[in-house]
Amino acid sequence: MIADIAIGGVLLPGLLVIAFVALIGAAIVLRLLTLTGADRAFAHRPLVELAAFIILFGLLAQHLPSSGLMP
Fold this sequence. Notes:
The chain is mainly alpha-helical. It has one domain. The protein contains 2 helices and 2 strands; from the N terminus they run ββαα. A two-stranded antiparallel sheet has the order 1-2. The mean pLDDT is 87.
């Protein structure tokens, strides 16, 4: 189970924190794709952006609770 996270006395849902981290990660991945020119291989960029976010979110949600990084 993904627990809530307390930041400065404010409880944030664990999935919200994971979604924020996945959003930052997706932005980094998309920036790397643009810098290398690999984004030209995809016809529909918004679909690639959504897929990158969903893949990162799924990986984080699957592995963070079991790794002990989140209480």
